[in-house]
Amino acid sequence: MATLLWLQAGACSGNTISLLQAEEPTVVDLLTDFGVELLWHPSLGPELGEAVQAILRDLVSGERPLDIFVVEGTVVQGPDGSGRMDMFAGRPMTEWITDLTAVASIVVGVGDCAAYGGLPTVPPNPSDSTGLQFHREQKGGFLGKDWVSKAGLPVVNIPGCPAHPDWISQVVMAVATGRAGDLALDEYHRPATLFTTFTHSGCTRNGFFEYKQSTMEFGQGTRTGCLFYELGCRGPMTHSSCNRILWNRVSSKTRAGMPCLGCTEPQFPHDDLMPGTVFKTVKVSGVIPRDLPTDADHLTYLAAAAAARVSAPQWAKEDMFVV
User: Do the strands 129-130 and 75-76 form a parallel or antiparallel pair, or are they unpaired?
Assistant: First the structure.
């Protein structure tokens, strides 16, 4: 039996809502089949007030073991480093995080905010928010770049806004069943099995991408064109399995005609949401996308794109589905 505590710091609860939709495994599966003992969760735990504080004190003192400590939400350090913008159970949340990460065997940061700081870190960042072990793409964050848990692992990050429910449940299942050592982490501490491929992998618009045919406006659904060239889709350079492990086993943003926002990357929100960067592809000289698919260079891309457009078959320029 692996004990699990889930706390929400500067959070919108989006990852909790996502978790409840998990299918492989479900939350019930985690509790009944995979040996997870849920000590407390702000939305699922029945304890309130003093009862919650008693649980936390027992964990910090070592009277009860803490195997998995999950943090959802950004670490709010303001004002002036006091952490008192985010109070919980009589103390700044920063103090609880410090004490609980010291006794936890494994620490998991769920969602982009916990992993990298997320939306609250956009300048001027009045709450002095940061991620557990990263501040955007810079390693360090609240715990510091050299921090490791009692099991010898850094914070295991499951980014996303929100994270896919099955990413969360599968990582918790692996840790709960003693396979944390099998989690190969990338440079941003994401499990490689979930974050090696790109959102682009499996996208139903890849035929349009190949021939550089663009969707020019919203409302065209999945019918015609790629979202990358005009509408700011970041699928070709965003590490995620969104189009391999479908949401609700049905769809994904790009399959529904919505550009990928790159929310699993530490730079999210990209360009700090400056005007002209949201749902719009930022271009060099108004022609070439500034941000290209990973490992592509602008000169080679320009030549390849020109050749692709010239050779595009008629079907790539037409409505993809007829209903």
Answer: antiparallel
Binned at pLDDT 50, 70 and 90, residue 101 comes out as very high
Q: If you count DSSP H runs as helices and E runs as strands, how many of each does the chain have, helices first? A: 9, 13
Q: Same domain for 133 and 243?
A: no
Residues 81 and 148 both lie in one domain:
yes
Residue 298's pLDDT band, with cuts at 50, 70 and 90, is: confident
- 221 has pLDDT over 60: no
First-last CA distance in the chain:
52
Whether residues 49 and 118 share a domain: the answer is yes
Q: Tell me whether residue 133 is exposed, middle or buried, using C-beta atoms within 10 angstroms of its C-beta: 0 to 12, 13 to 18, 19 or more.
A: buried
Residue-wise pLDDT for 141-197, tens only, equals 999 999 999 999 999 999 999 999 999 999 999 999 999 888 899 999 999 999 999
Q: How far apart are CA 226 and CA 208, in angstroms?
A: 5
pLDDT at 323: 40
pTM (whole model) above 0.70: yes
- For residue 111, CA distances in Å to 14, 246, 323 come to 8, 17, 37
Look at the chain and report how many structural domains it folds into: 2
CA distance 41 to 206: 40
Alpha carbon 252 to its chain's center = 15
Backbone angles phi, psi at 27, to 5 degrees: -60, -40
CA–CA separation, 106 and 101 (whole Å): 8
